[in-house]
Amino acid sequence: MTLDDLRRDIDRVDEVLVRLLNERARCVCEIGKLKKELGIEVYQPSREKDVLRHVRAIASEGPLGPDAIARLFERIIDEARRLERRVVHGESDGAAHE
Amino acid sequence: MTLDDLRRDIDRVDEVLVRLLNERARCVCEIGKLKKELGIEVYQPSREKDVLRHVRAIASEGPLGPDAIARLFERIIDEARRLERRVVHGESDGAAHE
Questions:
Q1: Which of A23, A52, B56, B89 qualifies as a FRET site for B72, CA 20 to 30 Å off?
Q2: How many domains does chain B have?
Q3: Among B4, B22, B55, which would you mutate to test the A interface (most chain A Cβ atoms within 10 Å of its Cβ)?
Q4: Contacts of B25 in chain A (CB under 8 A)
Q5: Residues 6 or more apart from B46 whose CB is under 8 A from it?
């Protein structure tokens, strides 16, 4: 396999990753709407811990390993929280995390 | 759909995300080995820009949007570079980015 072949493989994986990240985000928006209806707080640290525990547990086989996977999911959760806040409060927390 | 249903959906998406992130990482390791053989530098900013341009271009349809997708991929690229360095130099840059 050449460098170009491998880069094409990565581009294809990235296309699926973008699709899945947006699918996840759509679930997060639905959760935001539900929480708004039910009057539940967006930030639920125990659920965030469960998500990290779950991905760590299934990450042990791959080359990234649990720590790198957890770092990436901390960011995914961060973006999810930002999106959910927008759904629930119409808030934009802008560039606060940059 | 209940909150629990939606959370189960997210857990399932996360499982596929972990699998894909590791599949991407395996390609990155192969690229690292090739670069080592060919004596090419790990850090190739023009390729990193291409990756970001690519994911931005396909991110416009979803709720996350191009900026959030690009932020997430900056982290994915960061982890990829860290892994590639380990493959090429046997380096560990440890907790330098934490």
A1: B89
A2: 1
A3: B22
A4: 62-64
A5: none
Is B7 within a domain? yes
- Taking residue A1's Cβ as centre, other Cβ atoms within 10 Å add up to 11
pLDDT of res. A60: 82
pLDDT tens, residue order, chain B (98 aa): 899 999 999 999 999 999 999 999 999 999 999 999 999 998 899 999 999 999 999 998 899 999 999 999 999 999 999 999 998 888 654 444 33
Strand locations in chain A (E): none
ipTM, interface predicted TM-score of the complex: 0.90
Residue A27 near residue B10 (C-beta atoms within 8 A): yes
> Which residue range(s) make up the domain with B57?
3-89
Task: Name the pTM for this structure.
Answer: 0.90
In a domain, A55, yes or no: yes
Q: Which residue has the tokens 């996840």?
A: A24
Cβ–Cβ below 8 Å for A3 and B62:
no
